[in-house]
Amino acid sequence: MSGSTMKFTTRPGGQLTGQIRVTGDKSISHRSIMLGALADGVTIVEGFLEGEDNLATLNAFRALGVQIDGPVNGRVEIQGVGIDGLQAPSADINLGNSGTSMRLLTGLFAAQRFDTTLTGDKSLVTRPMRRVTDPLTKMGASFTTTDSGTPPVKIHGQQRLCGIDYDMPVASAQVKSSLLLAGLYANGQTCVIEPAPTRDHTERMLKGFGYDVQVSGSKVCLLGGGRLTATNIDVPGDISSATFFIVGACIAKGSQLTIKHVGINPTRVGVINILRLMGADITVENEIEVGGEPVADIYVKYAKLRGINIPEDQVPLAIDEFPAIFVAAACAEGQTILTGAKELRVKESDRIQAMADGLSTLGIDAQPTDDGIILQGGQLGGGVVNSYGDHRIAMSFAMAGLCADNEIEILDCENVNTSFPGFAALANQAGLKLNVKDN
Ligand code: S3P
User: Fold this and answer.
1) Is residue 11 located within the same domain as residue 134?
2) Are residue 113 and residue 210 in the same domain, yes or no?
3) One domain for residues 45 and 60
């Protein structure tokens, strides 16, 4: 989407070995800035992901008058301004490629005394916003978007919000979090009911900041009008970034790889569950709890994979991992079928189409369906594939190089920096034969 000139080229073969650490969790890093900014006191974050998406969130709060020092080697110090301390920005806020910043901040800023306009890059301005603006409007918020409900989003401040009970039509942590952040300011109770479990980092972190959040089954509620108390946050490695290496080690003969200190929140481990169903050899070791989030080392050994019907209940738990899972399925024996994953069509790119296009170019029978894909495992060949400016598509095809019998050229890879700065160097260190060209 960005039309960048950065290209990845993989030479065939190789294996992933040794011990690595991946960068910090993107979802947790976003939330650490948001809640740290609203808290009373100073919040220190360690392990913060210095990717462009998280820097977009950080800069948005600077634009709203919050003093934030860093990041320096993953350390960020946030001088919280208190729940009512944000100030009007002097210009529109550009959130780049970051859907999470866009959705969550729309909820939070809808409750402020001032107007804000949120915009973003070529991809972000195509992403659906009604999923948040509709329920937020029911709470009393007021917005202007494009006619198709996409950004730029003009948020009209000075509205009085009221808590609602909202039955979410899509399983989305971004929608849930957006409403909960608005709910901090609403009169009465805000409750969100999920059709299926989604990542619960907002709920966990709110509790870490001393805010009372009631969770019972699929319903999450909080009462507006409370305050947040600053706390320190240690961000674990991002399982969504670890996924590229987990898949790489699963598909490359001779691989034995340990990924240290990865977040294994049960709402994020769908990729491990799915790959294990395919026959993967994955061990989760040294589990500990860090700041309310479970963390562990993940050990992966090459194993022959087989195609499966992916259980639909795993879809929200692996929502960002499907591009890499499709590469695993392409290297597996037999057919893999995914259904119930229409959401993949409205991510940073249409991930069903982007992966089907690229895998077909590499000689794999990949049939996109309305809400998923049907893939026949086979021998991956070489060719030129387009990542469509989508970081996860780019990194997934990079790992495909391990199983391909020829060179793969991947176009438009600049946005890898949105979620995984340093990916190429780390991948080479682990054994992938990856070359980066930027001209
Ligand atoms: C995220 C939630 C997911 C995910 C995104 C990050 C979050 O989006 O795809 O990368 O941090 O809340 P949805 O909630 O829209 O599925």
Assistant:
1) no
2) yes
3) yes
Nearest CA to ligand 1 atom 9: 320
Query: Which residue owns the Cα nearest ligand 1 atom 10?
Result: 320
204 and 299 co-located in one domain? no
CA–CA gap between residue 49 and residue 31 (Å, rounded): 11
Q: Is 298 in the pocket of ligand 1 (CB under 6 A)?
A: no
Residue 148 lies in a domain: yes
Instruction: Pull the structure tokens for residue 159.
Output: 């509205």
CA of 250 relative to ligand 1 center, distance in Å = 25
| Ligand 1 center–CA 427 separation, angstroms | 24
Ligand 1 binding pocket includes 345 (Cβ within 6 Å): no
What pLDDT band is residue 51 in, cutting at 50, 70 and 90? very high
Same-domain pairing of 217 and 242: no
User: DSSP label at 225?
Assistant: T
State both tokens at 309: 């019907």
Which residue among the candidates 25, 234, 320, 350 is catalytic per the annotation?
A: 320
- Cα 433–Cα 437–Cα 439 angle in degrees, nearest 5: 175
Q: Is the domain of 261 the same as that of 148? A: no
Ligand 1 pocket, residue 168 CB under 6 Å = no
Q: What is the mean pLDDT of residues 182-192?
A: 98
Residue identified by tokens 């929608």 is: 175
User: What is the Cα–Cα distance from 333 to 38, expressed in whole angstroms?
Assistant: 51
| CATH code of the domain in which 312 resides | 3.65.10.10
Residue 325 near residue 247 (C-beta atoms within 8 A): yes
Number of domains in the chain: 2
Give the distance (Å) from ligand 1 centre to CA of residue 322.
13
- Assess whether 199 and 274 both reside in one domain: no
Mean pLDDT of 2-23: 91
Distance from residue 345's CA to the centre of ligand 1 (Å)? 13
Domain end: 185, 217, 234, which one?
234
Q: Each residue of 116-162: pLDDT tens digit?
A: 999 999 999 999 999 999 999 999 999 999 999 999 999 999 999 99
> Going by CA atoms, what residue is nearest to atom 5 of ligand 1?
100
Tell me which residue range forms the domain holding 347. Answer: 6-24+236-438
Segments in 112-200 forming alpha helices (H): 130-138, 173-183
| Known catalytic membership, residue 53 | no
Question: Domain boundary at 188, 219, 234, which?
Answer: 234
3 pLDDT higher than 80: no
Q: How far is the CA of 232 from the centre of ligand 1 (A)?
A: 23
Q: What is this structure's pTM?
A: 0.98
Q: Is 174 in the pocket of ligand 1 (CB under 6 A)?
A: yes
End-to-end CA distance of the chain: 17
140 and 10 both lie in a single domain: no
